[in-house]
Design a protein that fits this description.
mainly alpha; single chain
Length: 132
Amino acid sequence: MSAIDQFRAAWAPRLLSVLRIMSALLFLQHGLAKWVGFPAVPGMGAASLSTLSGAGGVIEIVGSVLLALGLFSVPVAFIMSGEMAIAYFVAHAPNNFFPLLNRGEAAILFSFIFLYIAAAGPGPWSLDAARK
């Protein structure tokens, strides 16, 4: 096995954990902005469970905390992936075909990152791995 293969074998699972943690922490901001108003984003805050955005904010907060900890990672990541797919098609795609123009790149990236985590698992640095 080459040195590059050894490096990849050792670090790929760890970097999966880093990807999961960082994606969850970045995603947490979206839910907090909707429900807590921090960080302050114009037009966000004062969410309500009766709206898609408010319900999405709950998924974003609870799911992000669970995903950052690596707890119930596979089902949580799958739900979050679906939420972002819905967000893209409901909020972004109707505005323009091209993601750059409809400002949907983040939704697409989050959706596919979470889908990958749902398929690959949380990585070794997770509560799920510690429970096994």
